[in-house]
């Protein structure tokens, strides 16, 4: 087994590489995780979940999604604290499942975040086009790509600090949304369409599950995508100060805050809007701009609320792209360090950023440039499906890796007390986490609009295994 130092202290003799720097604090880790999660999945896709699953169904979906994320993060905590490396998921899978699976997981994680870049840039460009209708979507996409590249090509400390404040804007907005929404629900603020306090009548006005129970299962992939990003703590562990102390605290803080934010947001939207009107419209002229956040603020009647909310959502989307580029490029760097990619990908600048890995990863943002030719909503839905499915595969590998890690740890003569962080309720947590993630991944096959992405992801997985074993036999 390779030690953490073998990953974090890649020598400068080859390819001009220097060590990644441990410059992230606990507040950086928490905000990086929150920033990665609060984005498209909450601001834009939450309405789709409500319209499909119904109000109470959506609440249950997000609670289940939060619990799945928490189980996975508990497994990640044990792995990340005992082996705090950049590119962690691939390393964990290589050590505890098999090197071929580790290679596949690394590439799936890279693909997931690379595809996410496309969803964030496309959605942000559509919102910008509402302000400037005569400009092209591809022009805004290009501008956003350049801005995110500049942020990532500076130092890790600068990236972490900028991401902290971008995430802070998102967190503050969600809190304000929930507080103002609750004020409208209880009649303290006027709300369009209601003469008296709407209270929580809309939650059950059409029954608990107006479309049945199946939509709860069918929307779980979108819900899990909303929690996508919490696992960034594991990626950042290799660049975190005092990971033994800060990583566990960041995991607990991030997951529970996300649960409160997401469930609170769904309750507010479902209470104020008829569930049939919460989803995104199919009108291409409006595209993805009909966010339930924008609708609620508009109906409350706050001056310029729509423009303010649109600005916040654009900021949130770019923040998610910013953190996603960071995570994916570190995974590519780790593959290079492990001699599974050419050395050029582990080349770092003097400030410690993997410049080639960052530039190549940005390829995922390029589909946004094709939005006007193929329909922005079509590109968005397919990229979202790919990003969500690949993340489910990574989460499954985390649970499986922790299960095998604990078994090997005890077999080798170690004691539980020797672990710096222990996943509670073993083996229940990793087993249930793996099963629920598997079910979530299979739900993608139930959506006709995502079936092509589902098949594409399976082909990509098979290609990863084939290329690994070809490289392995070639080396030997």
Radius of gyration from CA coordinates = 22 Å
| Largest sheet data | none
Identify low-pLDDT runs: 1-18, 280-289
Q: What spatial form do the alpha-carbon principal axes imply?
A: globular
* CATH fold title: Amino acid/polyamine transporter I
The share of residues in extended strands comes to under 5%
* SSE series: HHHHHHHHHHHHHHHHHHHHH
CATH class: Mainly Alpha
CATH architecture type: Up-down Bundle
User: What is the rounded distance between the termini?
Assistant: 20 Å
Task: Count structural domains.
Answer: 1
Mean pLDDT: 78
Structural class comes to mainly alpha
- Bin the helical content: 55-70%
In total, how many beta strands?
0
Number of helices: 21
GO cellular component, one term: membrane
Main location: membrane
Protein name: Amino-acid permease RocC
Membrane topology: Multi-pass membrane protein
Descriptive report:
The chain is mostly helical and 476 residues long. The protein has one domain: Up-down Bundle (Amino acid/polyamine transporter I), CATH 1.20.1740.10. It is built from 21 helices and no strands. The chain has helices spanning 4-8, 26-37, 40-43, 46-53, 55-82, 88-96, 99-131, 137-152, 156-185, 201-204, 214-218, 220-227, 232-236, 243-272, 292-300, 305-337, 355-361, 371-374, 376-411, 428-442, 451-475. The radius of gyration is 22 Å and the shape is globular.
């Amino acid at each position: 087994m390779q030690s953490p130092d073998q990953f974090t202290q890649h020598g400068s003799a080859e390819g001009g590489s220097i060590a990644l720097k441990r410059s992230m604090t606990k507040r950086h880790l928490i905000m990086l995780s929150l920033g990665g999660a609060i984005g498209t999945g909450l601001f834009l896709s939450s309405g789709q979940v409500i319209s499909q699953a119904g109000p109470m169904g959506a609440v249950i979906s997000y609670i289940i999604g939060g619990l799945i994320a928490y189980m996975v993060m508990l497994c990640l905590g044990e792995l990340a604290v005992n082996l705090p490396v950049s590119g962690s998921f691939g390393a964990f899978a290589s050590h505890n499942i098999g090197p071929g699976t580790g290679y596949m997981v690394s590439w799936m994680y890279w693909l997931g975040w690379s595809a996410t870049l496309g969803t964030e840039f496309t959605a942000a460009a559509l919102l910008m086009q509402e302000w400037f209708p005569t400009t092209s979507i591809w022009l805004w996409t290009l501008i956003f790509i350049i801005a995110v590249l500049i942020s990532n090509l500076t130092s890790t400390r600068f990236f972490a600090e900028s991401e902290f404040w971008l995430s802070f804007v998102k967190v503050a907005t969600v809190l304000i949304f929930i507080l103002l929404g609750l004020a409208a629900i209880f009649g303290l603020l006027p709300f369009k369409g209601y003469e008296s306090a709407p209270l929580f009548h809309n939650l059950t006005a059409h029954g608990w599950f107006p479309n049945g129970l199946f939509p709860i299962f069918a929307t779980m992939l979108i819900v899990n995508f909303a929690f996508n990003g919490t696992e960034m703590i594991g990626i950042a562990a290799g660049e975190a100060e005092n990971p033994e102390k800060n990583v566990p605290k960041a995991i607990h803080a991030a997951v529970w805050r996300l649960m409160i934010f997401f469930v609170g947001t769904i309750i507010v939207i479902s209470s104020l809007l008829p569930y049939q009107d919460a989803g995104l419209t199919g009108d291409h002229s409006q595209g993805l701009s009909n966010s339930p956040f924008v609708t609620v603020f508009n109906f409350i009647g706050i001056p310029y609320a729509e423009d303010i909310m649109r600005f916040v959502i654009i900021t949130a989307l770019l923040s998610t792209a910013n953190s996603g580029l960071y995570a994916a490029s570190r995974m590519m760097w780790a593959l290079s360090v492990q001699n599974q990619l050419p050395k050029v990908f582990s080349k770092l600048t003097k400030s410690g950023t993997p410049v080639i890995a960052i530039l190549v990863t940005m390829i995922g943002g390029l589909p946004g440039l094709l939005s006007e030719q193929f329909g922005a909503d079509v590109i968005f839905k397919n990229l979202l499906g790919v990003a969500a499915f690949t993340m489910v595969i990574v989460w499954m590998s985390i649970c499986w890796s922790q299960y095998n890690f604990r078994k090997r740890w005890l077999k080798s003569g170690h004691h539980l007390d020797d672990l710096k962080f222990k996943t509670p309720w073993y083996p229940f947590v990793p087993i249930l986490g793996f099963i629920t993630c598997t079910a979530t991944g299979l739900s993608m096959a139930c959506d006709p609009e995502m079936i092509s992405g589902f098949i594409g992801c399976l082909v990509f997985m098979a290609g990863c295994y084939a290329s690994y074993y070809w490289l392995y036999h070639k080396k030997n």
